[in-house]
Specification:
heterodimer, A: 608 residues, alpha+beta, seven-stranded mixed β-sheet, four-stranded mixed β-sheet, 20 helices, 27 strands, 31% helix, B: 301 residues, mainly alpha, MetI-like fold, 11 helices
């Protein structure tokens, strides 16, 4: 589940529109001192030898503790561009999303006493290019990519969007960028980097060469090892051993007066059960989402001071079908299965604490659905468990029942073979439960596991499985939500605003759904093209499109939405208080450790 | 064993057999624990052979009683799917024991054949075979199994047993060779040679029976080794998921049901562990009895 949590976070990287400003929360006393104990839930296994480099996969860099981003993007239901202030104190987004102007914190300083400058931010953007991010990418035609980075004055920067293929979540892409000290990292980028970048934006062989050179720099960035940690965050790395990483307060941090803990300790862990142990022992002041069975959850809650804060997590899981394989190409088979699977029971067995049974298949998380498609949710087929309807659907699909068992139309046996990566215990548990439910209703089924998640995704994309679980509804951006159903995995690729469709089994198209779907009450639609439109649509424009797509997903069922994830944050009120309960800041950008943001903004207080 | 050299008559061999079984009975009676060992082993064999027949192919699950603690209804509680843990142990025993049996058989057959051949022939054959054995012994089997598991799914207990068996014969081969080297210089082998008996007779009727108890004990011990190895592999999660496999049960008990944290799931963890413990105990006790039955010195006391 640890791996799943990491995957969920990685996939959650998405996001979209609007504008926002921010000002630092300067309230309260704070500065009470004390040791804050936590874990980096995204990264099992501390590596004492790894450098304090945020881009190094094992790096001892803890986002929001000793690594700062320009802003901390929020978990808003619909607006991807909302954020809390980070290195930028405030920002302005042009109404048409064509540019974002950042105002840096006037007092921001690195832990070695040097001020944080616009040059630091500019260089950090350069480094982001070598890794490829949503806003800073050299991939030709990438949506929402930046065009120019202009230093206005020593505390102001303006970043414009390439309006050839704009994205409403451009500002999010910019804000979600880690800022590094240019006086430490200056030699990583060559002197002619920005010229090279300009060349890379062109066309032809020279541009191609420049792009390759920039991507090649990525390796240098990953390997870069600063002699010591220089942080603009509230803490700076003191030492790491295999058991824990110790960070001490950065006295130069702009809001140091409101940072409650004097030290932060990251404990090492290798698996979920170790985190459960820490939590039941009351050792952790905060931990991000960790899947836990009900009994363990109760034990955690019983530990003195512990509290579990539940919030919104814009991710759901669905049972996806490979429609190139029979009988899943037939919509009646998929509908029949949807009528046979009791989602309440699946969720109860597999993810009682970390999920809510999906109300129906819309493609959107049930919490965000009303905001996007309004009353349509109530009009959709809920697929309540109904064996009689399932039988009807199967019959319509031409399946036959022999000796109480369903067989394919030609009489050959039918076995629903579901695959899950081993280690994803909630997925396996869910599939095992679905298997029981199906067998009870005369549909033979089996659960197959594969070694790990990367292999699972690879084999899934290659069309090796009949049925697999699929993360979906990755909000808040509408495009990100629907590209999970009608994107590359179902044949549609969107490059530079041009949508192309690959045949089933080719180009990662494992779902193999039809290119056009007849939707009741709407007519024939091309869901992939509609989804692509969401990439540039404003929130208001997106709503009618999403309504069509929700209806299409509900009728055509490329996946059966099973449960929508819940964001459990574990906190202890024994040593610190002031934990936020606001959904929007309980979960922040990719890899960001929420408690670091709460601490640096002065929300968390020491218990005197 | 020199008795076998005498020309046999039906009556004497029947009498010997009777004496042998009487001896067995005496040895068994001397320590009741040995009887317990036999009962345990027989129990496991019966469980693997007939246990699964009492249950449906797909065990019923109850989503309203998941991960329950032990009760009268469910002696070891229920698993996270709401299935009876004891039933899972019983239905899972077939795979474990069948593959362990195959492993033991292969270990012993291959190990004994190679050991006997090289010990009896000596010379160049011995050198070649023993170098191969040495090489085999230096290969760490666990990492190799982990790699193999990525390409081979071991869905069939026979495949699993075959692979584990091919990894396990080295020790037996070396020990059997040492025994052979020592036995072939003894008087009764000399006598057999002097009588002009064929090599086949000497190996089959003289050497092998002398070593039979030793080989049989090795075989039983190989069973425990094979159980540990495969349960370990399933526990690590490198082999495909099979809900009633003992190793998978241990894995799920710790990593899914949280048996180390909540006592409710303890039965789920303990049931497969107890099964393994009991099986090992049974084997140890039977090996103890065999030792006395076949070792004349212990018998005469």
């Amino acid at each position: 589940m640890k791996r799943l949590a990491a995957a969920v976070t990685l996939l959650g990287l998405a996001t979209v529109t609007a504008c926002s400003g921010g000002s630092t929360t300067q309230s309260g006393s704070g500065g009470g001192g004390g040791l804050f104990t936590t874990i980096d839930v995204n990264r099992p296994g501390l590596d004492a030898a790894a450098p304090p480099n945020p881009y190094n996969p094992k790096g001892n860099s803890f986002s929001a503790f000793n690594a700062m981003k320009i802003g901390w993007v929020k978990n808003h239901l619909t607006d991807p561009n909302q954020a809390l202030p980070g290195i930028a104190e405030s920002w302005e987004i042009a109404p048409d999303n064509s540019a974002i102007t950042l105002k840096l914190q006037p007092n921001a300083k690195w832990s070695d006493g040097q001020p944080v400058t616009t040059e630091d931010v500019r260089m950090s953007i350069g480094i982001a290019y070598t890794q490829g991010s949503t806003a800073f990418s050299v991939t030709p035609g990438a949506a929402g990519a930046a065009a120019e980075v202009t230093v206005v004055d020593d505390k102001t920067l303006k970043i414009t969007q390439n309006m050839d293929n704009p994205s409403p979540k451009f500002a999010r892409g910019v804000l979600d960028t880690t800022v590094l000290p240019s006086h430490v990292w200056k030699d990583v980028l060559p002197a002619d980097f920005w010229d090279k970048l300009k060349t890379a934006r062109g066309e032809g062989a020279e541009a191609e060469k420049a792009r390759e050179e920039i991507t090649a720099l990525g390796q240098k960035v990953l390997a870069f090892a600063p002699a010591k940690d220089v942080s603009a965050g509230p803490f700076v790395l003191e030492r790491v051993n295999p058991g824990e990483a110790l960070l001490v307060k950065n006295k130069h941090f702009y809001n140091a007066a409101n940072v409650a803990p004097a030290q932060v300790k990251f404990l090492n862990f290798t698996g979920n059960e170790q985190i459960w142990n820490y939590l039941t022992a009351g050792k952790l002041d905060h931990s991000g989402f960790v899947a836990a069975p009900t009994d363990v959850m109760n034990r955690i809650k019983q530990a003195p001071g512990n509290e579990v804060i539940k919030g919104y997590s814009p991710v759901a899981v669905g049972m996806g079908f490979n429609q190139s394989k029979k009988p899943y190409d037939n919509v009646h088979v998929r509908r029949g299965l949807a009528y046979l699977i009791n989602r309440d029971e699946v969720t109860k067995v597999a993810s009682p604490e970390g999920g809510t049974p999906a109300t129906t298949t819309t493609g959107i998380h049930q919490k965000a659905a009303p905001a996007w498609i309004g009353d349509t949710v109530g009009q959709l087929e809920p697929y309540k468990p109904d064996p009689a309807k399932a039988e009807e659907e199967f019959k319509q699909a031409g399946l036959t029942k022999k000796d109480g068992k369903w067989t394919l139309s030609d009489g050959s046996p039918w076995k629903v073979s579901m695959t899950a990566p081993s280690g994803f215990s909630d997925w396996i548990s869910a599939q095992e439960n679905i298997k029981s439910q199906l067998i009870k209703n005369g549909v033979d089924a089996e659960v197959v596991t594969v070694a790990d998640y990367p292999l699972y995704l690879e084999e899934l994309a290659a069309g090796k499985y009949d049925v697999g679980f699929w993360l979906m509804a990755l909000g808040p951006a509408p495009y990100d939500i629907y590209q999970r159903l009608y994107g590359a995995s179902n044949g549609w690729t969107n490059v530079a605003g041009k949508v192309t469709h690959a045949a089933p089994g080719k180009g990662g198209n494992w779902m193999g759904g039809p290119e056009e779907i007849e939707v009741e009450g709407i007519g024939k639609i091309n869901p992939g093209e509609l989804t692509a439109k969401l990439n540039t649509a404003t929130a208001e424009e997106a709503k009618p499109i999403m309504t069509q797509l929700a209806k299409a997903a509900n009728q055509d069922l490329p996946v059966i939405q099973l449960w929508d994830y819940v964001n459990n944050q574990f906190v202890s009120n024994s040593r610190f208080t002031g934990w936020p309960h606001d959904d929007e800041i309980l979960r922040l950008g990719t890899g960001v450790l929420a408690s670091g943001v709460w601490i640096q903004l002065g929300m968390v207080k020491s218990k005197q | 064993m020199s008795a076998t050299l005498l020309p046999e008559t039906t009556s004497t061999s029947a009498a010997m057999r009777r004496n042998f079984w009487r001896g067995v009975w005496r040895v068994m009676r001397r320590k009741p624990s040995r009887m317990a060992g036999v009962v345990i082993l027989a129990g496991f064999i019966l469980m693997a052979a007939f246990g699964p027949l009492f249950y449906p192919d797909h065990l019923p699950s109850d989503p309203d009683s998941i991960s329950r603690p032990p009760s009268w209804e469910h002696w070891f509680g229920t698993d996270p799917q709401g299935r009876d843990v004891l039933t899972l142990v019983i239905t899972g025993s077939r795979y474990v024991l069948l593959s362990a049996g195959v492993t033991a058989l292969i270990t012993v057959v291959v190990g004994t054949a190679i050991g006997l051949f090289s010990g009896f022939r000596r010379g160049r054959w011995d050198t070649v075979l023993m170098r191969i054995t040495d090489m085999k012994l230096t290969i760490p089997s666990l990492p190799l199994l982990l790699v193999l598991a990525t390409v081979w799914k071991f869905g069939n207990p026979l495949q699993m047993g075959l692979v584990l068996g091919l990894f396990g014969w080295g020790g037996v081969a070396r020990a059997v060779r040492a025994q052979t080297l020592s036995l072939r210089e003894r008087g009764f082998i000399e006598a057999a040679r002097g009588l002009g008996l064929s090599t086949r007779h000497i190996i089959g009727k003289e050497l092998l029976p002398s070593m039979a108890p030793y080989i049989a004990m090795n075989m039983l011990i190989a069973v425990t080794g094979a159980v540990y190895a495969q349960v370990g592999l399933f526990f690590l999660g490198v082999l495909p998921y099979e809900s009633d496999n003992w190793g998978v049960m241990l894995n799920l008990a710790v990593f899914q049901a949280g048996a180390m944290i909540t006592p409710n799931a303890l039965g789920y963890l303990l049931a497969p562990l107890l099964a393994i413990l009991l099986l090992t105990l049974g084997i140890v006790l039977v090996v103890d009895a065999m030792d006395e039955i076949f070792n004349p010195r212990l018998r005469e006391e």
